[in-house]
Design a protein that fits this description.
With about 280 residues, the protein is of the alpha+beta class. The protein is built from six helices and 18 strands. It binds zinc ion (ZN). The site of zinc ion (ZN) has 7 residues, from loops.
Length: about 280
C-alpha cells in the first residue's frame, strides 16, 4: 500500500492515479492524513480490494504524508560511514533527539535557508503503525505502518550552539521535508536493505544502504519501545549515511537556488528548492 497526503486528505496511490480514502471507503477511513494510522491493519486490508480511483496523481498536490505525528524521533550517527567522516565513536545505544513536528513539510516544498551552515542529511523515515511497548526485534516490522523518504535538514551552527542542541538546530521552519508517500513494508523486496541517496543541483553527494545502519529499523523499534510507548503515526528519522556537507574539506552548505533531491529505493524521490 502507498498512502499519500493529497491536499490534506489521505489517498491511496494506485499507479499514476489516486483513490481518496474517505471517498472509496464510504467514510469508514480518513479523511485527514493522520486518520489511517490508528486503524492501520484495517486500512491495509481494505486497500487490497480498492480498484477504482478518484483522480490523477498530481505531484503539486502532494503534502507531507505524516504531517502531525505525536512523537518524532531522530537518530544520530547511525551509519558507520557517517561516524567515520564525523570522527565520532559508534554509540552503544541509539543517539536520539527530536525534530519538532512544526519543521515537517511536503515532498516538493521549498526549504527556507536560514544562515550560512544549512546541511543535507537524506534518511529513511519509519512510520509507526500500532502502539508499541517492549517490542521484540523479531516482531518489530509488524509494528511499522510504512517507510518514507526524509531530509533531516540541519543548521550546523544552531545544532552545536549552547553546548549542543540537536533538536532545535534540526527543526527550523521547513527543515523536515518528507514523502512523497508512505510505502508499507510488504511492497519492498527487502525493507532492511534499501539504497538511499541525495543530490544537490544534480551532483550526487550521499549514497548508502540501510543494511549499513548501526541500529536497524527492528533494533530501533525495540530500543525505543523499551524506554517509552510508540504510538500510531509516530515517525523515526533513522540517521544519515556518509557525504554530509559539514565534514567536507572545505565544508559545503545549501544556498538559495540549490535543488536538493533525495531518494530511497522502492519508495520514491522528493525534491526541494532552497529559497
Ligand atoms: Zn539526521
Amino acid at each position: 500500500m502507498k498512502l499519500a497526503n493529497v491536499r490534506g486528505r489521505a489517498a491511496l496511490v494506485l499507479g499514476d492515479e489516486i483513490a481518496d480514502l474517505a471517498e472509496v471507503s464510504g467514510g469508514r477511513f480518513g479523511p485527514g492524513p493522520m486518520a489511517p494510522y490508528p486503524h492501520w491493519a484495517a486500512v491495509a486490508e481494505f486497500s487490497r480490494g480498492v480498484t477504482s480511483t478518484t483522480g490523477p496523481l498530481v505531484e503539486a498536490d502532494l503534502r507531507c504524508p505524516v504531517p502531525a505525528p505525536r512523537q518524532v524521533f531522530a537518530i544520530g550517527v547511525n551509519y558507520r560511514s557517517h561516524a567515520e567522516e564525523a570522527g565520532m565513536a559508534i554509540p552503544d545505544v541509539p543517539a536520539t533527539f527530536t525534530k519538532f513536528p512544526a519543521c515537517l513539510t511536503g515532498p516538493f516544498d521549498d526549504i527556507e535557508i536560514a544562515g550560512e551552515t544549512t546541511d543535507w542529511e537524506v534518511e529513511l523515515v519509519v512510520v509507526v503503525g500500532r502502539q508499541a511497548e517492549h517490542v521484540e526485534q523479531a516482531e518489530a516490522w509488524s509494528y511499522v505502518a510504512g517507510l518514507t523518504v526524509g531530509q533531516d535538514v540541519s543548521d550546523r551552527h544552531l545544532q552545536f550552539a549552547a553546548g549542543g542542541q540537536f533538536s532545535l538546530g534540526k527543526s527550523r521552519r521547513s527543515y523536515g521535508p518528507m514523502g512523497p508517500w508512505v510505502v508499507s513494508p510488504d511492497e519492498l523486496a527487502d525493507p532492511d536493505d534499501l539504497v538511499l541517496g541525495c543530490s544537490v543541483d544534480g551532483e550526487r553527494v550521499q549514497e548508502g544502504r540501510t543494511s549499513d545502519l548501526v541500529f536497524s529499523v527492528p533494533r530501533l523499534m525495540a530500543e525505543l519501545s523499551a524506554v517509552l510507548t510508540l504510538f500510531p503515526g509516530d515517525i523515526i528519522f533513522t540517521g544519515t549515511p556518509a557525504g554530509v556537507g559539514v565534514t567536507r574539506q572545505p565544508p559545503r552548505f545549501l544556498r538559495q537556488g540549490h535543488t536538493l533531491q533525495s531518494w530511497v529505493e522502492g519508495i520514491g524521490t522528493i525534491r526541494n528548492r532552497c529559497v
